[in-house]
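Supplementary Methods, section 5.1.

A reviewer requested that the exact input to the structure prediction be made available. We therefore reproduce it here, unchanged from the version used in the analyses.
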Amino acid sequence: MPREEFVAALDTAGCRHRINSVLTFGEQSSLRTEPADVCAVFSLPGRNNDVPHRDRFYLDVLHKRAV
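The structure derived from this sequence is encoded token-by-token as follows.
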């Protein structure tokens, strides 16, 4: 799923989110939802990934930290 579609879905649902600067660098981007604290990590597609837009970030990992 492209990052733009993921963010649009969060916005439509009224789910607040912010950039996760700890996991945003180089060819990777991350955000956290609030208040649920779910982390989504996106990256540029690898050579073997069949995606329509090679220059866009796609969802790689979605996780929630257990406390």
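Residues 3-64 form one domain. These observations are discussed further in the main text.
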